[in-house]
Write a structure and sequence with these properties.
Oligomer: single chain
Order of helices and strands: HHHHHHHHHHHHHHHHHHHHHHHHHHHH
Number of helices: 28
CATH topology of one domain: Serine Threonine Protein Phosphatase 5, Tetratricopeptide repeat
CATH class of one domain: Mainly Alpha
Largest sheet: none
CATH superfamily of one domain: Ankyrin repeat-containing domain
Number of strands: 0
CATH architecture of one domain: Alpha Horseshoe
Distance between the termini: 46 Å
Length: 622
């Protein structure tokens, strides 16, 4: 009985793969061994196949009793036997009964496409009990790959059957998970976010970190470098989930989850509650924190093995991909583990990738370097005039810019990046010309010409639309200021409701609405008549848009308040005072719609203008 290191016992004995070499797999084009060319197909095969598909063991038993060779015969045109079909459909009873009649060696027989019964069960059914029956009959079956070189455990994870995959991993000998077989399993585990399987296998076979899974050169370390793109970040959670994330204790669940024991339940009740009553959302946050903890352990494993000299190219490529995806922790920890990487041009490539794909968190690391000005002034040999400013002057890819709310904010973000790199560049380098004879500023204006037009059109359309609303409110409130509810006293000219509390609310809300709407219209007018140069997109235009939207919101709210106070004064001495509540509810609809439609724009503009994505107080490293 072989045992994997760690807590995961293997129930299968070590496998001698030599006997499997002589196992010939018939090709789809070759004649079936028990079919004669030109003869019609036996009808009992169709009946047998149908009986298995509908899970009718009685009919299957009857046909098998009448035809002794039915157990081993191919019953469909793909070379599948009774066991193949039963495992494929996941019929546990039929599989158990067939295994009583079949020898263990028969389980290793593939169909015409090289799939054993266990591979078919892993791909189509995903029933763990079927896999247990097959493995208990012949444990060697877990080491028979399909025609693509994937083991049954890999097929299970690839097709989304995680419970079966965890079971098959627990019974697959470690010697079958080395080399490309193990690397392919890791790839499927990463895609299925089964990080505990990947971590356990990599802890036992650390060389798999650098093992390619296919001819395309995919390696596990490349996947670890981009894990942040597959896991939800805590910052992306809503506020109450972030609070839960901060205080919850992540629970590591045993890899073999197919049989939940009392010990497993105790782990799940670490929060002091029974599993059946734990809130679903809390459990999701708990699982998310578990994924983050496992991702951190994978990163530590990479750092532990990162100094292997023969893997320099793989490390460099992984760092470049991490910078492209914004995985700042990977870049920071790996470079700290192997500081000699700064002797190569790897970090230059990382910062270039961060610039190309506008990954601010990765680029901020440059402020922690003692030789940051040397990186900022580094120039390629084929174009000595091409500085870092020239690189950031080129417009970011569209899929990167599309993450930002509007074209004007996209133009603003590009300017912010240009100014940030400019602050790192000595003045003498800012006037360098590239091989096309363009300075960085000229290249910026040329590459952003179309984006600036789009930003100008968008902000003009927004200002024009909002100014129409503001002008309408000005008109309404100006008229309302001289048409007070209840009328005026004919003798002295004072309003009749002047001593009523709600009359004061009406007066102040009317004045506030009139003044704020007028200010809003003036802000939007300033946008429409502004000079649209590059520098204006940085602060001037966004600030005017923020003020215009803010005062427009204030004017709408105060207008609704003035309306409600008027209704309250009119209904106070009538029998219809009960109607005030529904009126308030309906009057809140315009406010809600405005917040729903315009508040995201106001929030994004404010954060983009007065927030700071660049952090110059980075701790020194490496």
């Amino acid at each position: 009985m072989s045992t994997l290191p760690g807590d995961f016992k293997q129930s299968a004995a070590p496998i001698d793969l030599d006997p499997l070499v002589g196992l010939q797999r018939p090709s789809p084009e070759s004649p079936r061994p028990n079919e004669e060319s030109g003869e019609e197909r036996d009808t009992w095969k169709d009946d047998l196949c149908h009986a298995i598909c509908v899970d009718g063991w009685t009919d299957v038993k009857s046909i098998v009793d009448q035809n002794p060779n039915a157990l081993t015969a191919e019953i469909d045109d793909k070379g599948r036997t009774t066991l193949h079909v039963a495992a494929m459909f996941g019929h546990v009873t039929i599989v158990e009964e067939l295994l009583k009649l079949l020898p263990p060696q028969f389980l290793l027989r593939p169909d015409s496409f090289g799939d054993t019964a266990l591979v078919l069960a892993s791909r189509f059914a995903g029933i763990t009990q079927v896999a247990k029956c097959l493995v208990n009959k012949n444990s060697r079956i877990v080491c028979i790959p399909n025609k693509y070189g994937n083991l049954p455990v890999t097929v299970a994870f690839a097709d989304g059957y995680q419970e079966m995959g965890r079971y098959l991993y627990s019974v697959t000998p470690l010697e079958c998970l080395t080399g490309r077989w193990g690397s392919r399993l890791l790839r499927c585990c990463f895609h299925a976010q089964c990080f505990e399987i990947a971590l356990n296998l990599l802890q036992q076979c650390e060389e798999l970190l650098f093992m390619p899974a296919n001819d395309e050169g995919w390696t596990p370390i490349r996947e670890i470098a981009t894990l942040n793109t597959t896991i939800i970040r805590p910052s992306e959670l809503i506020f109450w989930k972030r609070w839960i994330y901060s205080f919850i204790n992540h629970v590591f669940v045993d890899i073999q989850q197919q049989d939940r024991s009392q010990g497993d339940k105790a782990k799940l009740t670490e929060l002091g509650k029974d599993p059946c009553v734990i809130n679903v959302e809390v459990k999701k946050v708990q699982e998310l924190k578990l994924l983050h903890a496992q991702a951190d352990d994978l990163l530590h494993l990479v750092c532990k093995n990162a100094r292997k000299a023969y893997q320099k190219r793989v490390i460099d490529e992984a760092l470049s991909r991490a910078a492209k995806e914004g995985n700042v922790e990977f870049v920071l920890q790996v470079s700290n583990a192997i500081p000699e990487i700064f002797l190569r041009e790897t970090m230059v490539s990382c910062f270039n990738k961060a610039l190309d794909y506008r990954q601010a968190k990765v680029f901020n690391l440059i402020h922690g370097l003692r030789f940051k000005h040397g990186l900022a002034t580094m120039r390629p040999d084929n174009d000595p005039g091409h500085t870092l400013m020239h690189k950031v002057a080129i417009k970011a890819p569209d899929h990167v810019l599309n993450r930002i709310y509007a074209p004007s904010l996209q133009m603003q973000r590009e300017l912010q990046w240009f100014k940030e790199v400019e602050s790192l560049t000595p003045p003498s380098f800012r006037v360098f010309q590239n091989k096309d004879g363009m300075t960085a500023g000229e290249l910026f204006r040329e590459s952003h010409k179309e984006l600036m037009k789009q930003g100008e059109k968008w902000i003009k359309d927004t200002a024009s639309s909002c100014s129409v609303v503001g002008t309408l409110i000005v008109t309404i409130m100006f008229a309302g200021a001289f048409t007070v509810p209840g009328g005026n006293d004919e003798n002295v000219g004072y309003p009749l409701f002047i001593k009523q509390p709600f009359f004061k609310v009406f007066i102040f809300s009317t004045i506030l609405s009139l003044l704020s709407s007028s200010t809003s219209v003036l802000m939007f007018l300033a946008i429409l008549t502004s000079q649209y140069s590059e520098e204006k997109f940085l602060k001037s235009l966004p600030t005017k848009l923020i003020l215009g939207l803010f005062f427009l919101f204030i004017s709408i709210v105060s207008m609704i308040i003035a309306f409600l106070s008027t209704i309250r004064l009119m209904l106070k001495h009538t029998n219809y005072s009960w109607g005030l509540l529904p009126i308030i509810i309906f009057a809140s609809v315009p406010i809600f719609l405005f917040v729903l439609s315009q508040f995201p724009l106001l929030l994004h503009t404010f954060v983009s203008t007065y927030g700071n994505i660049f952090d110059r107080k980075v701790k020194p490293w490496p």
